[in-house]
Amino acid sequence: MDLSLMDINWRVILPEITLAVFGFVLLLLEAFLPKDKKRITGHIAWIGIVLSFLFCLNLYGTQLSSFKGMALSDNFAIFFSFLFLISSFFVILQSLSFLKREEQVRGDYYALILFATLGMILMASTLDLVVIFLGLEIVSISLYILSGFRKKDLKSNEASLKFFLMGAFATGFLVYGIALIYGSLGTTNLEKIFILIPLTETTLPGKDFLLYAGIGLLIVGFGFKIASVPFHMWMPDVFEGAPAPIAAFISAGPKSAGFAALLRIFLLAFSSFKPDWILIFWILSVLSMTTGNLLALWQTNLKRLLAYSSIAHVGYILIAFVAGGNSAISGVLFYLSIYILMNLGAFAIIISMGSKDREGTDLFKEYAGAGLKNPFLGVFMAIFMLSLSGFPPTAGFLAKFYIFSSAVKSGYLGLVIIAVINSMISVYYYLRVIVYMFMKPAEEDIKPVSIPFSLGLVILVTGIGILAFGILPQPLLDLAYNSIF
Amino acid sequence: MIDNIWLVPLLPLLGFLINGIFGRKLGKNLVSWIGCGSVGLSFLISVKVFFELLSLPAEQRIFEKIVFPWIYSGFFKVNISFLLDPLSGVMLLVVTGVGFLIHVYSVGYMYEDNGFSRFFSFLNLFIFSMLMLVLANNFLLLYLGWEAVGLCSYLLIGFWYEKKSASDAAKKAFIVNRIGDFGFALGVMLIFWTFGGLNYTEVFQQAPSILVAGGGLVTAITLLLFMGAVGKSAQIPLYVWLPDAMEGPTPVSALIHAATMVTAGVYMMARCHILYELAPFTLGLVAVIGAVTAIYTASIAMVQNDIKRVLAYSTISQLGYMFLGCGVGAFAAGIFHLMTHAFFKALLFLGAGSVMHALSGELNMQKMGGLKGKIPVTFWTVFAAVLAISGIPLFSGFFSKDEILWKAFSQGNLLLWLIGVICAGMTAFYMFRLLFLTFFGKSRVDESIKSHIHESPKIMTVPLMILAILSVLGGYVGIPKSLGGGNNFEHFLSSVFGEKEMIIHHSAFTEYIVMIISIGVALAGIFFAYRFYISKPELPKSLAEKYNFPYRVLLNKYYVDEFYFKIIVNPLLKFATFLWQFIDIRIIDGTANGLAGMVNWFGGIGRKIQTGYVRNYALGMVLGVILVLAYFILK
After folding, report:
1. What angle in degrees, to the nearest 10, is found between the helix axes of B307-327 and B396-410?
2. Are B631 and A216 a contacting pair at CB < 8 A?
């Protein structure tokens, strides 16, 4: 093919290129820097994120496309890139002090975070199933390694291996699904699929089953990535075993990337099939929120609790797929933004509360009385928990409200009632964290923990963000509404 | 500057946040600089803005600033946005100006208190809430300020919460206010239901065409809003919280009684004057309640011995005047009196605080006396305020009170006018009684305190002096035409209230006569006070013995608190106990606990599926795949 005929606009993939370059630089630095100098790798990593963010900012509103639609910069893509970059930024800030405490300051750790971020951006800024798959694999493989980063810890190893085995299994379904769709329609471009589908009814008889099977396998593959029941089982184990910043990372960026792809695939490409797949999403949603919430009730480990809570939240977000329409899509964008803030904030507090010898236990009883000793952590943990359970005036309430109201408008009242009951159940275990922090006497004489600057910053910014968007949601809501594909 | 009007409420909010979060670490000096500085800066900006407003031609003196969209839900749209016109301009100056002086005074007054930073953060929040209330350009933001002011009063009245009387008073203030707010909230909802929006411009412009003058709807709206005003501005029957509110530190009383909170009701009615003018029935009720409250509480004030209690009842009585003014349609006069009252009442409370400061916290006037020479600055400034509130010519209260009385008289409400005049005499009596008992005569101070009576420090006396100047001169912005002035104040507000061409039934001569009558009554009040407490100090005692029953009724404030307790509070408590013991514990808690147990049980079953073996995880996934594919095949 003649290169000059190819549709290439480097500007569109500048954010990705930046991340890749910084990632490789970090790998080299890891190899050649003396051990006492490696502290700078973390700072280089967040500078790379900021730079990439600026390139994204520059792209907002441009609607460019490059590589024949394989990379594009519509507002939807940029909105998600913002989410990924912001969450990675916070994760890097969390890791700065975490790695120092673990005496594991290493460049490859940060490089993997940057590569994973790159993969997520790829997933959101394309209209092609193959590129989505490519991005998804970059993310997954980085995360497999990162989950096992604490090499000498058995639980970390277990997490990594389980994640890898299950992930590989799920990826198989996903590729097979894409192959089936290509087989029946002859394209992997989502826009072309959207155009072709009305024709299949008449011109391609007999191929319907292949197409349906493909769609079903896509649901399975992505169901695994976003951890919806019954494809969720890896998540609690990975959360418990992985280093805390990585667990935070998994719950924020990659999950959102999965939703970005799902939104494009199901609410754009296969939107005309909606009557066919809507029931599956309805069931997945109910299963996810109910299972997540019921199992969360029994947890004694805070990280596992957040894993189940995360599964429940996936259930709430899936409601938007059933509801459909622009207000549901913008509701998802709003929800993910808020969810990222509250989850990263909660994990930052977990990291603050941990110590080298106690890493990985994170039991409730270790938090008894901690809120009184550390009022800063206690108050913000209360904010995050209230927001996760959906109390006004936190943003968590509005996030739920927008999705639920879009479902009511579309006539899915029953689903919303189930979701509200689930929300009520969830209040119990979220409040239990607050009860432990403030109302249970400390088991032993605990000292106030000292909070490193970078962690304190994450807690402060996310906490204030949750309150600010809870009171003044309009700017973010407008941004989300303008970012629908 | 006018475009940056949002800075005015923002600065006290920042002060609140900084002092509230970091206050304990900042040290008292920094806390007081932040607390006073934020309000002081707001005041300076308000002055600048005010003069910019003045420099515009009269018909352009209205300015709206949308800061950001607040709630957009369907066709319901509310912004955080501010309205600046002569009315809110005046209120802005009063709130920030008087508020600032009270802040400065508090630095001295509260310096020894452990809760110093908490106190200043609450004061800042109070000013912020009041500014939001005054600057709002829609009813929802007004309501926000309205409620926030109530919250702040709760926090500050109960500032010394270890004292049971203080926390009780705080609860009383909050609950009584909530009763009024209930009506107010219904009023706001009714406005939304009627007009489909909550913006002032939108509502007031449509009001004459949508509402029938004197009709049921507008009467209902105005009555409901009035219910809120009755609570906030402490009128009959919801006035009971205000006398107890003095349980808070004295600067708080000054703030509540003068610059913030109680003036909210008057401001709200003035702001909604278009609605009220459409509802003559409500206006009549406002005037009657105002007049009755004025004379009723003045009678209580005449026999109280607690210096702050006298002032508290006097505030209610003066607010009654303002309501009377609004009720007879003289909104400008009501706001005028609001302003002058803010000056002299703040001064009186701060002066009383200074007296307490000198006497180690003594409140009983029977244990004072002869302080004139010992705390001269306090004496002279309080004296100025007493002259102003008593309506002595050339002092500010004279002009504003007379304006209201004249408006009542000239509109033919002779009975209301008469009540007002008698009440003016009573006011002069109890204020001079306060002055004489405190500063004149023989000292009745306890021997133990006598030796260290001292004048307050500069930081407290300078605000007193400034307020004294304002109390003396504040009335000159509104000298009536008959006395050769231009009534500039009313003229200035006319772009809000409209230039009402008074039908002149009465000549200037009548106005002089009316004026002279009220001066005469005031002088009579002073004469009686002089006779009772200076020349023949044994007289009050013998009178009290002779007319024992009416005296006891007045001293016990007509037993209204006791009455409310018997008729309302106790039956409610009994009912609540029943609800708690039976409905709540047995039925609701029982159901909830049962459900929770059930949910937990299901969770326990679900937990068994999560075995931890990868092969089981994979099995779960495969089952999922089979179900999904089966669905597509079989459908």
Report:
1. 40
2. yes
Side chain identity at B270, as an amino acid letter? A
Q: Which helix (H) or strand (E) segment is A72 a member of?
A: strand A71-72
Instruction: Check whether A404 has a pLDDT greater than 90.
Output: yes
Question: CA–CA separation, B291 vs B325, rounded Å?
Answer: 9
Helix (H) or strand (E) holding A337: helix A326-353
Q: Are strands A65-66 and A71-72 parallel, antiparallel or unpaired?
A: antiparallel
Asked if B629 reaches chain A (Cβ–Cβ under 8 Å), the answer is yes
Nearest CA distance, A454 vs chain B (angstrom): 20
Q: Is A208 on the interface with B (CB under 8 A)?
A: no
How far CA B584 is from CA of A176, B571, B574, B577, B594, in Å, comes to 57, 18, 14, 10, 14
Residues of A in contact with B596 (CB under 8 A): 428
Interface probe with A: pick from B68, B593, B621, most Cβ of A within 10 Å:
B621
Give B470-498 pLDDT, tens digit per residue.
888 888 887 777 776 667 788 788 878 87
- Cβ pairs A/B, distance under 8 A: 81
A135 in B contact zone (CB under 8 Å): no
Q: Which amino acid is at A86?
A: I
Q: A38, A105 in Cβ contact below 8 A?
A: yes
Does the CB of B213 have a partner CB in chain A at under 8 Å?
A: no
Rounded to an integer, what distance in angstroms lies between the CA atom of residue A244 and that of residue A362? 10
* Of the ranges A308-317, B169-178, B465-474, B612-621, the best mean pLDDT one: A308-317
Closest CA to A234 of B366, B132, B616: B616
Is the CB of A408 inside 8 Å of chain B's CB atoms?
Answer: no
Instruction: Count CB neighbours of B508 within 10 A.
Output: 12
DSSP class of residue A128 equals B
Q: Which structure tokens are listed for A347? A: 């994990």
> Does residue A458 contact residue A343 with C-beta atoms inside 8 Å?
no
What count of Cα atoms within 13 Å lies in the side-chain half-sphere of residue B534?
16
Among A223, A233, A276, beta carbon nearest to B617: A233
- The phi and psi torsions of A51 (rounded to 5 degrees) equal -60, -45
Q: d(Cα B44, Cα B112) in Å, to the nearest integer?
A: 29
pTM: 0.72
Q: Which amino acid is residue A433, in one-letter code?
A: V
Which residues, 6+ apart, have CB-to-CB distance to A115 below 8 Å? A19, A20, A23, A138, A142
In what helix (H) or strand (E) does residue B563 lie, and over which residues does it extend?
A: helix B560-564
Q: Tell me whether B21 touches chain A (CB under 8 Å).
A: no
Phi, psi of B601 (to 5 degrees): -65, -45
Task: Check whether A207 has a pLDDT greater than 70.
Answer: no
Distance CA A114, CA B198 (A): 50
Asked if the Cβ–Cβ distance from A173 to B625 is below 8 Å, we say: yes
Nearest to B612 among A166, A237, A295 (CB): A237
What pLDDT is attached to residue B219? 92
Query: Does residue B604 sit at the A interface (CB-CB below 8 Å)?
Result: yes
| Mutation for A interface: B79, B614, B635, most A CBs within 10 A | B614
- The model's pLDDT over A449-485, given as tens digits with 9 standing for 90+, comes to 888 999 999 999 999 999 999 988 888 998 999 998 8
CB B106 within 8 A of CB B168: no
Which helix (DSSP H) or strand (DSSP E) does residue A125 occupy?
A: none
Flag whether residue B484 sits within 8 Å of chain A, measured between CB atoms: no
Q: List chain B residues with CB under 8 Å of A472.
A: 68, 70
**Beta-carbon contacts of residue A81 (< 8 Å; ≥ 6 apart):** A15, A56, A121, A124, A125
Cα–Cα distance for residue pair B150/A307, rounded to 1 Å: 42
Q: Would you say how long chain B is, in residues?
A: 635
> Do A276 and B632 make contact, defined as CB atoms within 8 angstroms?
yes
